[in-house]
Each structure stands twice: as C-alpha cells, then as structure tokens.
Amino acid sequence: MVAFTLRRVLYSVLVLFGVNAVTFVLFFAVNTPDDMARMQLGRRVTAEAIERWKAQQGYDRPLFLNARAPGLGKITDTVFFETTRKAVSLDLGRTNEGVVISEELSHRVVPSAMIALPVLALVVTASVLAGLTLILFRATALERAGVIALVALMSISTLFFIITGQYVFARVMQLMPISGFVSGGSSALFVALPVAVLGMAYLGPEARLFRAVFLEELGKDYVRTARAKGLSEFGVMGHVLRNSLIPIITSSGLLLPVVFTSTIVTETFFTIPGLGSFAIEGITQQDFNIVRAMVFIGSALYIMAFLLTDLAYGWADPRVRLR
After folding, report:
1. C-beta atoms surrounding 171 within 10 Å
2. Which of 43, 121, 128, 158 stands the most exposed, by the fewest C-beta atoms within 10 Å?
3. pTM for the whole thing?
4. Helix or strand or coil: residue 94?
5. Does 132 fall in a domain?
C-alpha cells in the first residue's frame, strides 16, 4: 500500500506541474505582460509606466529562458520559475487593491468548505440509500414513482432550486437568512439553504447512477449464490453495496471538485464570501493574479480529488494496488 500511495502521489505532482505549465502558457499567450499593464493602467499609458508596472509585478524578465543569466539563472531567473515557486509555497501575490491573496483564500475557504463538504456527504449518502431502496422495491409503483422523481430533479435547473428555496424558506417561512454569511455558531444558518439547494440539484443524477450500478450487480453470479444459500434480501444488498464500491468511489471523487465549482453560482446568489465569489470578483475586475490563483487552486483540488479516489480504490479493491 505504501508503494502504491507513493506512485500515485508522484503522478499527482507531475500532473500538477504539467497543468501549471499549460496554464502559464495559455495565460501569457492570451495576454502579454504589456497587455496586462495597459488593462490596469489604461490604454493611454507611457512605455516607462508599463516597464515600471512590469517590474513591480515581476514580469520584466523572460518568460521561460533567460539567455543573459549565468548558470542555473537561465532557468531560475524567469517569470515561469518564479511564479511556479511562489505558487508551490502558496505565495500567490496580491490583488489590484494590494490584498494578499493567500490570506484572503485562507478566510474564504471556510465558507466554501462548509457548503461543499456537507453537500458531498449528503448527496453520496442519500443517493446510495435511494438507489438501494429503489432496487429493493423494483418493479413496483414505488420504484416507478422514485425514478420519475429523480428524472424530475435532473430536469430542474439549480437556479430554480435557489430562487424557490430563498422565497419559501427565507422570505415566506423566515427559517433562515436569505443571503450573507457570519462566522461563528450562526454560520450554519447561512449555509443550510445553499447546502440543501446543491444537494437537491445533485441527488437526481447520482441516485440514478447508483441505481443502475446496483441493478447490474443484482444479475451477477454471487447474488444468485447468496440467495440460493438462503441469505435475506437485506443481506444480499450488503453484498451488492460492497461490490459496488468502485463506481461509488469514482462518482464521489468526481463530485467533490464539481461541487466546489458549483459554489461559484451558489455563493453569488447567496452573497457568501467564499472561493467562488472570489473568482467572480477576479474575473469582473480583470485581476489576473486572482484568476491565476483560482485556476491553480482549482487544478490542485481536482488532482487531490483524483489522488484520494485512487487511494480509496486501493482500500476497496486490493487488486488495484498491483497496477
């Protein structure tokens, strides 16, 4: 298991480096340092002001190779090496207003995590239970009604859940705040509605997927053998669940970064100062340091989710560790 874990960690580091390199190339191919300076300082700006801005941002060096520098300086005295070094050390620079991005992220990650992690746990648990319930009552009116309900949930936009939830639970029933966020014990009231909204949005597709996985498992030989030995239907479901762990882990691993991405819309509607709203601010204000930092954080989150998924594979099926 140790060798398997080390291999997966090494792969993840290499992938993260590759993603960082591709992002850097695309970032500076679309907007050169001169273009960034003009966007920040205005179109009618002098060449001296542009060079001064580039020096302040560290963009006055070559991008990948510094032919004038001696020795290793040819590689280290470049924009790519310096930005990569800072990103790895979580020194993500400052916003246009001079706010340290890493400190801002440390504050904003708490509201986003308070939304995303409960949504992940809620969706996976509810989807597994819903899938098992539907196959327990397969070929009955309950299963048909359940499938119709899941398809309906899949067909409804997340925005509908957001607007309806705000109107019914916040405005009419006044059970929770309609927007905003405060730290401390009252924070649960502010994230309860966003968690419920995202949970409803993802319950339909996840539960249908798990139902299909469980139905496929029911047709396998070990299920017929278990029934022939007199095992109860609930006991059979336990075996089915155990043998369905790989697709469940795969779906859950893919769901984690997707949920974090979905908080961009949710945090905007609920005015929650999380990572999603921070990314929107960077885009609307054309703050390239924020955008680049959020791209790096998003890439790292995806890679971390896939790494945890691979490790969970090794726990669920020991045969995976040999690959």
Report:
1. 10
2. 43
3. 0.77
4. strand
5. yes
Q: Contact at 8 Å (CB) between 255 and 206?
A: yes
Residue 138: CATH number of its domain? 1.10.3720.10
**Do residues 268 and 125 both lie within one domain?**
yes
pLDDT exceeds cutoff 60 at 65:
yes
Evaluate whether 227 touches 236 at the Cβ level (below 8 Å): yes
Q: Is 72 helix (H, G, I), strand (E, B) or coil?
A: coil
pLDDT tens readout for residues 202-258: 888 889 999 988 888 888 888 888 888 888 878 888 888 888 888 888 888 878 777
CB burial of residue 322 (10 Å; 0-12, 13-18, 19+): exposed
Compute the distance between CA of residue 293 and CA of residue 158 in angstroms, rounded to an integer.
27
Mean pLDDT, to the nearest integer, of 141-160? 88
pLDDT band for position 26 (cuts 50, 70, 90): confident
Q: Distance of alpha carbon 312 from its chain centroid, rounded?
A: 18
CA distance 14 to 175: 48
pLDDT higher than 60, residue 323: no
Rounded CA separation 46/38 (Å) = 9
Give the residue from 304, 272, 90 showing the smallest Cα distance to 178: 272
Which of 78, 72, 48 shows the shortest CA–CA distance to 60?
Answer: 78
In three-state secondary structure terms, 177 is coil
Local confidence band at 1 (pLDDT 50, 70, 90 cut-offs):
low
**Joined tokens for residue 161:** 């859940």
Range of the structural domain that residue 284 is part of: 109-317
